[in-house]
Amino acid sequence: MTVKTVGVIGCGLMGHGIAQVAAVSGHEVTVLEADSGALEKGLGRIKKSLAKLVSKEKLSQGDADASFGRIKGTGNLEDLKDCDLVVEAIVENLDVKNDLFGKLGKLCKPSTIFASNTSSFSIGAMGTASGRPGNMVGLHFFNPVQLMKLVEVVRADETTDESFAAAKAFGEACGKVPVSAKDSPGFVVNRLLVPYLAEAVRMVERGDATPADVDAGMTLGCGHPMGPFTLLDYVGLDTTLFILEGWASEHPNENLFEVPALLRQKVDEGKLGRKTGEGFFKWEGDKRA
Ligand code: CAA
Ligand code: NAD
Fold first, then answer.
1. Distance between Cα 217 and ligand 2 center (Å)
2. Which CATH number fits domain 5-182: 3.40.50.720, 3.40.30.10, 3.40.50.300, 1.10.10.10?
3. Which of 120, 128, 136, 138 has the fewest Cβ atoms nearer than 10 Å?
């Protein structure tokens, strides 16, 4: 099956980027948002990102306009019922995701492939919730979707070969390099990345170093484009907390998944990172202040 029409659910940090790369690669895209303000903001970010790509001569003005024209925003789940593929990019909460896939399973045409952009949760669980486990895959894009070249394509036990192949082909059509991953916590990248981020927070909690010095260590010493604290702010401290909390409750004896108190404290204070203007650092729009 070749995917032509795509539904994206959530138009936040990830959803807007997924909608954009899908539209630029020629797909008709319907983006569903629960919050009309977030939809407007997400569509604005897509416009800005397309303009940036035009200014850098990575895209012609005509292609940017045509791509934006292929994206339709909605607040109505019904509008996704005929999509070939639906990619979910809502809050990192398994109950909320399962509830959504339950509704999609009752609504969408039988051939619709269901994909989750989850950072950490079980694709198999969402497949079961949808009532169509064969159609369920993980399509894990990376932030910022417009620039990061990877997509993890995750197959659960019941994912069919057809669904997996179609999802992988969609990722490639979006200009990404797919890697196949098993349905295990964090797949490939986050299983390594998230414990590293958590350990950076513990390092600061212990008073071993400041966030700025840890970041300097990893950028200047290891060549990472961002240090762990800038990356935490970039990803969202809430999202990282939800990932760790989910794993900690499922694997209580795994020290690597322990939730650092400082991370929880920042989230409780509403300091979620770039998206709220402050996390471990202060932000002005998309740049560190
Ligand atoms: N669309 C279009 N252009 C964009 C853009 C976007 N969304 N975001 C940035 N750009 C442009 C910038 O405008 C800039 O253009 P100019 O050179 O003309 O100014 C250019 O790309 C480079 O950006 P920056 O100057 O802001 O900074 P940079 O050189 O550091 O590059 C970066 C930005 C590519 C994000 C780089 O810092 C990087 O690779 N950071 C690490 C990101 C990372 O690790 N992502 C994975 C997060 S984990 C995850 O996603 C999984 C999960 O489940 C949590
Ligand atoms: P975000 O908070 O920026 O955006 C989520 C959006 O979903 C919000 O705008 C919210 O209004 C909307 N939403 C929530 N429930 C909804 C519903 N039922 N229907 C429609 N819209 C709904 O979050 P994000 O950072 O884009 O993360 C989204 C998903 O992508 C999460 O599963 C996260 O783990 C994963 N992810 C995040 C990153 C990252 O770096 N932030 C990277 C890869 C994957």
1. 30
2. 3.40.50.720
3. 128
Q: What percent of the chain has pLDDT over 90?
A: 99
- Cβ neighbors of 186 (< 8 A, separation 6 or more) are 119, 120, 192, 193, 194, 243, 247
Q: Note if the pTM is more than 0.85.
A: yes
Start-end of H helices in 226-281: 228-235, 237-250, 261-268
Residue 234: pLDDT over 90: yes
Per residue in 119-145, pLDDT (tens digit) is: 999 999 999 999 999 999 999 999 999
Residue 130 annotated in active site: no
- Ligand 1 center–CA 146 separation, angstroms: 8
Q: Which residue among the candidates 49, 119, 120, 130 is catalytic per the annotation?
A: 119
67 is catalytic: no
R_g of the chain, CA atoms, integer Å: 19
Give the separation between CA 90 and CA 233, rounded to whole angstroms. Answer: 18
Q: For ligand 2, is residue 126 a contact (CB within 6 Å)?
A: no
What does the mean pLDDT of the chain come to?
Answer: 97
Please give all residues whose beta carbon lies within 6 A of any atom in ligand 1, as ranges. 49, 52-53, 56, 119, 142-144, 146-148, 190, 193, 225-226, 231, 235
Find, among 125, 205, 139, the residue nearest to 172 by Cα.
Answer: 139
Record: fold of 191-282: N-(1-d-carboxylethyl)-l-norvaline Dehydrogenase; domain 2 (1.10.1040)
* Residue 152 contacts residue 174 (beta carbons within 8 Å): no
214-225 b/e with 16+ CB inside 10 Å = b? bbebbeeeeeee
Residue 91 — φ and ψ, nearest 5°? Answer: -55, 145
225 CA distance to ligand 1 middle (Å): 9
**Confidence at residue 1, expressed as pLDDT on a 0 to 100 scale:** 83
